Amino acid sequence: MSDQLELDSDLQALGGATAAAAERYIETVRQVASGATPDAAIPLLLLATSDLTAAGARLGAIVDVVPASRFEPDDGPDPDVEPLRLSLVNLLEGIDDYHEVSDPLVSGEVSEGSLSNDLTDIAQALLVGLNHQRAGNLSEALWWWQFSYLSDWGERAAAATRVLLGLISHLRLDVDPDVAGEAKFEALHAADDAAGTVDPSRG
Hints:
Number of helices: 6
Helix content: 55-70%
Distance between the termini: 85 Å
Strand content: under 5%
Low-confidence stretches: 197-203
Number of strands: 2
CATH architecture: Up-down Bundle
CATH class: Mainly Alpha
Structural class: mainly alpha
């Protein structure tokens, strides 16, 4: 039986918004992992993780959600995300692994991370919540999304966003100065031609 009526309107709205964000994230990651958009893979993943991080922040900003039942309802088997993980490993070969400070609040210890693991673990946590939400157990879905955000996928999404932003920054900014100078020169002359600029030295 649905527990949605036991939630106030604000929590119902938050549940709907979180479910929509979760579905957008999962759809985007699956599309990228399939190899359908190789040239846009990194930008699409950055957009997906950034959007999801904003949705997660709303979960972290509210008081603890209390589920309607003391026990987690059986709303289906745990999702199998291993095929997604393997596809991401292949897609991200050479740029998958990274280093990060494990917990900057308590130590400067550096650990190793993996984009493919991060993206897949996030998807798995979101899918568990979606199973509850689709079965009508919205308070359970909200509780799970909030708990797993604070304990795991929020940090994984933040780390993945940082790494993806770093990849794009390197791709865009790590350009040979001579190449960048030639591109700027050509762009300036193209703009002059478009504006009909005349060189006064030619009378």
